[in-house]
Amino acid sequence: MYIADLINRIENAEATIHCLKVEIIKMGRESIRWTEDDFRDEANRVEKNRKMLEIYDRSKFADALFMMMKNYDPECGITWETVRCYLDEHCLKNK
Q: Where do the H-state alpha helices sit in the chain?
C-alpha cells in the first residue's frame, strides 16, 4: 500500500505542476485557471440538477483536471461543458 500511496502522490504533484504551467498561458492581461474546486462545484451542480447524490468520485478530480489541461486546445478553449465532459469521462462512480 505504501508504494501505491507514493505513486498517487507523485501523480497528484504532476497534475499540480501542469496546472501551474497552464496558469502561465496568458490571454491579454487575464490568465486561464481551472482547479479541482471547479470540478467539485460543477459536480455539485450536476448532482443537484440530476437529483442524485455523489455520482462522481471526488478522489479522481485531480486526474480529470490533469487530463483536461494535458489535452487543452487553445483554438477551442475550456468551458463548463468541457469540465462536465471530463467529469463524466473520468470521475463517474458507476462507469
A: 2-24, 36-49, 61-70, 80-90
Start-to-end CA span in the chain (Å) = 24
pTM for this one? 0.66
Here the cell at position 74 is 487553445
Residue type at 93 in one-letter notation: K
Task: Decide: helix, strand or coil at residue 2.
Answer: helix
- Tally of CA atoms within 13 A in the half-sphere of 13 that contains its CB: 6
Q: Record the cell numbers describing residue 18, joined without a space.
A: 501542469
3-class DSSP state for residue 62? helix
Distance of CA 87 to the CA centre of its chain: 7
**pLDDT tens-digit profile of 45-60?**
999 998 888 999 999 9
In single-letter form, the type of residue at position 81 comes to E
CB atoms within 10 A of CB 12: 14
